[in-house]
Amino acid sequence: MKKILILLGIFISSVILFGSDNNNDEATVNITAEFLAPLNLEVVKHADFGTVIAQNYNKGNEPETITDGKLTVTGSGNVILKWMDSSNKSSPFHVSSDPLIVSLTNKDNDKLKAAFNVGANPKIKNDSSFNLTENKPHNLFVHGKLLDITSNTPSGSYTGSIIFRIEYDDSSVKY
Q1: pLDDT class for 128, splitting at 50, 70, 90?
Q2: Most CB contacts within 10 A, which of 13, 31, 43, 141?
């Protein structure tokens, strides 16, 4: 028993005496986390073309929305705005500077095409990505043009819709 105690004492003493005194055998990992405000996308106003006369329109003179749609986005950080024609849910969400082509349909299933842009100034360009400041709403306007109106366009009320999705842009995050 004495031998075991002596060996155990020598082992413990050697660990204490010959243990490392430098910091090469340990490291500290600092941990950080950034929290972003939840994203919120709200429709404030729907887009409306008003009453349109069925006639031939020259390119560049197509009927435009008399009331632009309006969206309000809140959150904090870089975001991407995606959108799609609700009548074509098999197509992917649109993220582009090109207008989104939307199908408008009446009760008889007659179709019209409209081109829409969305942004702070949609007559100039689409805003597919932008930066949000927390507690400061960002307004986006939805502006459209009817593309294929002729004097033979059937009368009726035409409707369609756009689905919008907002996501944080994590492409700038370094892993």
Answers
A1: confident
A2: 141
